[in-house]
From TrEMBL:
UniProt xrefs under InterPro entries: DUF1206 (IPR009597)
Biased composition (Polar residues): 8-17
Native species: Corynebacterium marinum DSM 44953
Pfam families on file: DUF1206 (PF06724)
Protein's name according to its UniProt entry: DUF1206 domain-containing protein
Length: 275
């Protein structure tokens, strides 16, 4: 009986793998998922631009996904564009979901699961703006942190969450420094002048984005340590914290430009990512 149960489990696992593999390779899904990378690119370019304007003291907008989505929503035809973005982000999330079943190792499967949640969350936020509503990444982060702090061992959980975000930031910096992100691209994507420009944008972009997330992680850890949800904030708070340091305006200019370059890399990734 045990052998039959094991065989049935293996058969079911293999069937799920084959189904996910076919879904992940479907032309309609991969085309829409590539559109998701275009959406990410546009959002990062806008976030980077807002950060640069904050560094110059000429913007009160939020340097976050919410701020970028609000900018798009206010443009002519913006809400229609946002509904298209929702579809593309949902497709990107579904494509990542297939990696839970087709990933070559535990790391690939874990990344697929995490990114599925990230892209679905962004799709929901985008749908809010597309429907005429608004939201704030900073307020959301503060509210979530407050709810967690209200739980038993809440401060510890917030600190752990902050350390995870800090780790994500440092990992992003490492990917930029080592250029390990190149393995996500099709063979030959980094050759020639265009390819070299893509790799350069990715290198600077991953480092800048990683710095921003590392600062955000520190803010979250401090929120848990101080038991104060107002300290958590979101990406906008992290970027503004950078701007408040010695020579902060220059630092924020550099990081903002780097975030925008990550957006440029994401646009190129839409064309050259392995799928």
């Amino acid at each position: 009986m045990g052998g039959m149960d094991t065989g049935s489990a293996r058969s079911a696992t293999q069937k799920a793998h084959n189904t996910a593999d076919r879904a992940g390779d479907h032309p309609a899904l991969t085309t829409l998922a590539r559109g998701g990378f275009i959406v990410l690119g546009i959002l990062h370019i806008i976030i980077g631009w807002i950060a640069v304007q904050i560094a110059r003291g000429s913007s009160s907008e939020e340097a976050s996904n919410s701020g970028a989505l609000e900018t798009i929503a206010q443009a002519p035809g913006g809400q229609i564009a946002l509904w298209a973005a929702v579809l593309a982000l949902a497709a990107l999330a579904l494509w990542r979901l297939t990696q839970l079943f087709t990933g070559e190792d535990a790391k690939a499967k874990a990344k697929g699961g995490v990114m599925t949640v990230v892209y679905l969350s962004l799709a929901v936020t985008t749908a809010t703006f597309a429907a005429g509503g608004t939201t704030s990444d900073g307020e959301t982060a503060t509210d979530v942190t407050a709810r967690v702090l209200a739980q038993p061992w809440g401060a510890v959980l917030v600190i752990i969450g902050g350390l995870v975000v800090l780790g994500v930031g440092l990992y992003s910096v490492a990917r930029g420094v080592t250029r390990s992100f190149k393995k996500d691209l099709e063979a030959g994507a980094g050759s020639g002048e265009v390819g070299s420009a893509i790799i350069a944008a990715g290198t600077v972009g991953y480092i800048a984005r990683g710095i921003a997330f590392a600062v955000l992680g520190v803010l979250i850890v401090w929120a848990g340590w101080a038991n104060d949800p107002e300290e958590a904030g979101g990406l906008d708070a992290a970027l503004r914290a950078l701007g408040e340091q010695p020579a902060g305006s220059v630092l924020l200019l550099v990081v903002g430009a780097g975030v925008a370059l990550y957006g440029v890399y994401s646009l190129a990734r839409a064309r050259y990512v392995k799928m």
